[in-house]
Amino acid sequence: MPDIKHFDPDTVLDTMVRLFWRQGVATTGVQDIVNATGLNRSSLYATFGGKQELYRAALERYVELRSRPTLGRITEDDRGLPAVVEFFDTLIDTRCTGEYAQWGCMVSNAHAGAENSDPEVRAILDRQHRRLRDALYTALLSAQRQRQLGEGADPDCAADMLALLAHGVNLRSRVGADARELRRTVTAAIGAATGVASSPPTACRPLT
Fold it and tell me: What is the reported pTM?
């Protein structure tokens, strides 16, 4: 077994992100962690603490390396509603196809799992939900300035609705929801939230 001095903690965390993301905390045992990392228990405990501490560290790493860059791109995108549509289009593609299909989102998975019984995990989840909601709100404000929203549409309420929609996409995809079904639902929800009656404006890439 590798000695504690001879492994990279970041590499171990990347391995643990994948393990906890795919399996969650409840179905991941210490032996699973040992098998995945190739480390002995004393090395793991000395570096990270117990399983729960390791999970929290992995969740933070997921947020920093995967969630925050995505939300940063929405915040910095000044196209307005097309940026929102593209976010959901990419989200569905990521959750339904490729290497991480049916893994869901580690953050959304934690909202729905036993992980959130830990107050420190709940704090991470609450903070990340606010970031998601605020990123969508920023894009919707841009859409409002560009007159892309329907009359009477409220960016504040729309951001709340669409943030919950993103979690819904993550969780439904985890159980194998059809991508076309998710796209139909997302298109309808964006239309309802933004006052765009039938479909996103022509500047948006269609969710097809």
Answer: 0.89
**Residue 115 CA neighbour count, 13 Å, CB half:** 29
Task: Decide: 104 and 173 in contact? Cβ < 8 Å.
Answer: yes
In terms of Cα–Cα distance, which of 164, 165, 183, 182 is closest to 173? 182
| Alpha helices (H) along 24-154 | 30-37, 41-48, 51-62, 68-76, 81-96, 106-112, 119-145
Amino acid residing at 157: C
- In a structure prediction context, what are the per-residue pLDDT tens digits for the chain, which is 208 residues long? 444 457 888 999 999 999 999 999 999 999 999 999 998 888 888 888 889 999 999 999 999 999 999 999 999 999 999 999 999 999 999 999 999 999 999 999 999 998 889 999 999 999 999 999 999 999 999 999 999 999 999 999 999 999 999 999 999 999 999 999 999 999 999 999 999 865 444 334 433 3
Contact between residue 106 and residue 116 where contact means Cβ atoms under 8 Å apart: no
- What is the rounded distance in angstroms from the CA atom of residue 11 to the CA atom of residue 99? 19
Sign of the Cα torsion 90, 122, 102, 30 reads positive
Tokens of 181: 């079904």
Structure tokens at 193: 């939230």
Task: For each of the domains in the chain, give its residue range(s) and CATH number, in order of start.
Answer: 4-194 (1.10.357.10)
Give dist(CA 81, CA 59) in Å, integer: 30
Amino acid at 146: Q
Rounded Cα distance between 152 and 140, Å, is: 13
